[in-house]
Design goal:
heterodimer, A: alpha/beta, 8-stranded mixed beta sheet, 3-stranded antiparallel beta sheet, 12 helices, B: mainly alpha
């Protein structure tokens, strides 16, 4: 048919347009991703972006240069966030219920996917034993709070039938191993609050202030301490547009922003991060940035000391992950001095710290799955 | 470098395309050679020396074969051929199989020989097979020895097919080394083919690979039968879309530079027997083994018994070619057994079956085969197969339901995409357009088809870029080949 005279179709114009469009797209993004000034820190992803490496013969021969070049090319890619959003939207449309190990939960929740295989039961048991050792040697009352993972409490918010690790068995194990470092099970309390309120952020892996309050309530009861009501702390809204870590991993098109609160009725205190004096426990600067949870204690530091009373008779030591940052303010009323240790960054001897200080109470507070995977708890023994 | 990377798509490819366009015709092979060496050296800066050695070695062998041929010295020719075959296989064997040998020796004799500290140079199985096809065919007088070293080196290192095929026999491409045509139409058709391949790899294979990876990394003790079959299906699709995607990209890239490379996959999962499957799967590899192993061994010309032995040798080697691990050999022998059964009686028997049953039969054995291929550890593989056939663990569980829910639509899309349905639909539409026999309709039909297909490939490009930028799962499956 096409051979018939006059029936030949001249496609040249169309070919030319196609070449210009396709070549234009790949070359444009390739060129400008390299030529535009490098971006250092990604607010959105809360990490430093890979920078284009310097040319060195040794690195080229080992392939290290090429690897880093490819990584920085992807990190520095023009319009990176928009590309990621597009990719997520496509996957969602194709029926995927998770992206980058985060579930698309119900009612706007983005919940980290933690399955049974992610948990190293041996490491968990070892960590429990380190904590129990701490309980035996600290010379004061020791408690442990293993904060339930968001998916454990919000089981009805993760996609139907989606796998999630079995927390019950792990709490049972904590109950058997932890004797001196008394296991404070905050699940009933936090479940109670979760019925009516939001105890975890929708776009972040942390708990909300109310979640932290539930833990404070359970902790105070377990240690027969005076307990204040939530209202007592004069809780104030600090931000209405928080998009946290799970949001950044998924990059959904239409995320519901989280509202953040903080306690304002707290006693005045002298605060030092890693020995450097600070103006307070809240870092207002962080509210203008992406990582707004950093408002509480400005993020994670090796050692944070909070002194309400110079005499420091009632002293508390908290060994913790970032979950404690929004929780500790509730306890400031109850102690003269609180020291927070983050073992990831703490370089000194914990045992020596215990010897030098007379802590009446010691608290280990971690989110459960984080606790089970943490490889720094051995430091409690040294 | 791999095709399915941002750096290839957005930097290497546009740069090479522009240089190729402005380069005078007589220097184009040199340009492609340099580009190919850069492409290879990007990922294997040291091992490029092996490839260069291979190139020089077989270039020299080709010239020597010609030299002895011209002087009528068959002994000299035989010697050179032996040298070339031993040299090529020696390199392949040393880099690919010596650690397997050491490991197996240690297991058999309970000794503790240390493993060699060598990594497998990417693409070595492809380019050694290509250079061997050259010297053997020069020996046989099927092709003339190549005098132009640059042309020959370009053939060996040509980046489109360098790391994952198709295996282009020298015979096939000889005439294309000089005097190729490049024009807008070839560029466009090539780019479209490349983008289809990119989509197969990045959108289809990588994303369903996540499911297989989840299942493979999971705890087999809690694996249900349904999960095991979902996993096997996932890998079945992953390997097809990955591998045929690479071939499409290679063929498309070749096209843009004026080459016509051989097809490598022809809807293998639409086959109705395993015999047919192997005519449609990795076509250039099967062709290579037929041409340089099966037929030289005597093929089917020396009686049935000898034919069976020949088939066994071919399938043992085919399996081993896919990786230095015994599970690949098992996979090859598995197909030997099925193919033999088909040859002896099954194919005749199957003629009476309904078509759908033939198809189910083929897909069943292909899928089970991929389990042998994908799980290297024999005890894990055995366990997985037992779960698949209901001998262990429950039939169904929550997780299987979740996987069905999250990957269900996608699996259906993949099944359709790997079948002949889409291409049939296109033919049907074309036929329909042609039936309206006016010039106007033909023109319109052709233009409409081009526009739709162009938009389709453009969308593939954008989605693939998005997935590559978000750093989603992007494995390279052929590092063992």
């Amino acid at each position: 048919m096409e051979q018939k005279a006059g029936m030949r179709v001249d496609m040249k114009k169309y070919y030319r347009i196609y070449i210009v469009v396709i070549f234009g797209i790949i070359a444009f993004f390739g060129l400008f991703s390299i030529l535009l000034p490098e971006k250092g820190y990604s607010e959105n992803e809360n990490r430093y972006l890979e920078q284009f490496p310097k040319v060195k013969a040794k690195n080229i021969l080992s392939g290290d240069y090429q690897e880093r070049f490819e990584k920085s090319f992807s990190d520095q890619f023009l319009g990176r966030d928009a590309w990621m959003k597009g990719a997520t939207a496509v996957k969602r449309a194709a029926g995927f219920q998770e992206v980058s190990e985060v579930y698309f939960g119900k009612s706007g929740h983005y919940i980290t996917k933690t399955v049974q295989e992610d948990i190293d039961q041996k490491q968990y048991l070892r960590n429990l034993r380190y904590v129990e050792y701490l309980g035996e040697t600290c010379g004061g009352d020791a408690s442990t709070i293993l904060v339930p993972s968001p998916g454990t409490i919000l089981g009805d918010k993760i996609p139907n039938h989606a796998p999630y690790y079995d927390a019950d068995a792990m709490y049972n194990e904590a109950g058997t191993v932890l004797k001196k470092a008394k296991n404070v099970d905050i699940r009933p309390e936090i479940e109670e609050y979760a019925k009516q309120n939001q105890v975890y952020y929708k776009t972040d892996h942390h708990w909300t202030l109310l979640g932290a309050y539930a833990a404070y309530s359970a902790y105070s009861d377990a240690n027969q301490m005076l307990k204040h009501t939530y209202g007592y702390f004069a809780v104030k809204k600090i931000s209405e547009d928080f998009l946290g870590t799970t949001y950044s991993k998924v990059m959904p098109l239409n995320a519901k922003k989280d509202t953040m609160y903080a306690a304002t009725n707290i006693p005045p205190a002298a605060v030092a991060y890693d020995g450097v004096e600070r103006s307070g426990i809240y870092d207002v600067e962080k509210l203008t940035q992406k990582d707004k949870y950093g408002y509480f204690f400005g993020g994670n530091y090796g050692e944070v000391s909070i002194t309400m009373n110079e005499k420091a008779e009632k002293k508390l030591l908290v060994i913790k992950d970032s979950y404690a940052n929004s929780f500790v303010p509730f306890l400031m009323e109850s102690f003269d001095q609180i020291t927070m240790i983050d073992l990831r960054y703490y370089k000194k001897s914990v045992q020596k710290l215990l010897e030098e200080n007379n802590y009446g109470q010691v608290l280990v507070l971690y989110e459960l799955s984080n606790f089970a995977q943490d490889k720094n708890l051995y430091k409690l023994v040294y | 470098m791999v095709f399915s990377s941002l750096i290839f798509v957005c930097i290497f490819l546009p740069v090479v395309l522009v240089l190729y366009m402005i380069c005078p015709v007589k220097y184009r092979n040199l340009l492609l050679l340099l580009a190919s060496l850069f492409f290879y050296a990007w990922g294997e800066p040291r091992y490029i020396l092996i490839m260069l050695f291979s190139t020089v070695f077989d270039y020299a062998n080709g010239r020597l074969l010609e030299y002895f041929g011209d002087r009528n010295q068959p002994k000299g020719k035989k010697g050179i051929l032996a040298l070339s075959v031993v040299g090529n296989l020696g390199i392949l064997f040393f880099f690919k199989y010596s650690n397997l040998l050491i490991h197996s020796w240690n297991q058999l004799t309970e000794s503790h020989m240390a493993a060699l500290k060598i990594a497998l140079p990417i693409g070595i199985s492809f380019y050694t097979f290509q250079t061997m096809s050259y010297t053997i065919d020069v020996y046989r007088g099927k092709v003339k020895a190549q005098h132009n070293f640059i042309d020959f080196a370009m053939y060996v290192s040509m980046f489109p097919q360098l790391i994952a095929g198709p295996i282009v026999r020298y015979q096939y491409i000889e005439n294309q080394l000089s005097g190729r045509v490049t024009d807008a139409e070839r560029w466009v058709k090539g780019m479209q083919r490349f983008l289809v391949g990119l989509g197969k790899k990045v959108i289809f294979a990588n994303q369903i690979g996540l499911l297989w990876n989840d299942i493979l990394q999971g705890n087999f003790q809690t694996l249900s039968m349904a999960e095991a079959w979902l996993g096997a299906a996932a890998f079945t699709f992953q390997i097809y879309f990955d591998f045929s995607g690479y071939s499409d990209m290679a063929i498309g890239l070749g096209h843009m530079f004026g080459f016509t490379l051989p097809e490598n996959f022809e809807h293998p999962y639409s086959s109705k027997s395993i015999t047919e499957f192997w005519r449609r799967w990795h076509i250039t590899l099967s062709a290579w083994f037929r041409e340089y192993v099966y037929i030289p061994l005597g093929g089917n010309r020396k009686g049935r018994q000898r034919q069976i032995v020949n088939l066994f040798i071919v399938w043992f080697l085919t399996g081993l070619w896919h990786g230095a691990s015994w599970n690949f050999v098992l996979w090859g022998i598995y197909f030997f057994v099925i193919l033999l059964a088909e040859k002896l009686f099954l194919l005749k028997e199957m003629e009476r079956w309904p078509e759908i049953l033939q198809h189910v039969y083929a897909v069943f054995f292909i899928t089970v085969g991929w389990v042998l291929f994908a799980i290297e550890d024999f005890s894990k593989m055995g366990y997985y197969l037992q779960v698949m056939f209901g001998m262990k663990n429950p039939v169904f569980n929550e997780t299987a339901l979740y996987y069905l829910q999250t990957y269900g639509i996608f699996l259906v899309i993949l099944a359709i995409a790997s079948s002949r349905l889409p291409i049939r639909l296109v033919y049907r539409l074309r036929k329909y357009m042609l039936r309206v026999e006016t010039e106007f309709a033909v023109k319109k039909g052709k233009k409409a088809e081009f526009i739709v297909y162009s938009i389709y490939t453009l969308v593939i490009l954008l989605v693939s870029m998005g997935l590559l930028i978000s750093g989603s799962y992007n494995p390279f499956l052929y590092f063992r080949f």
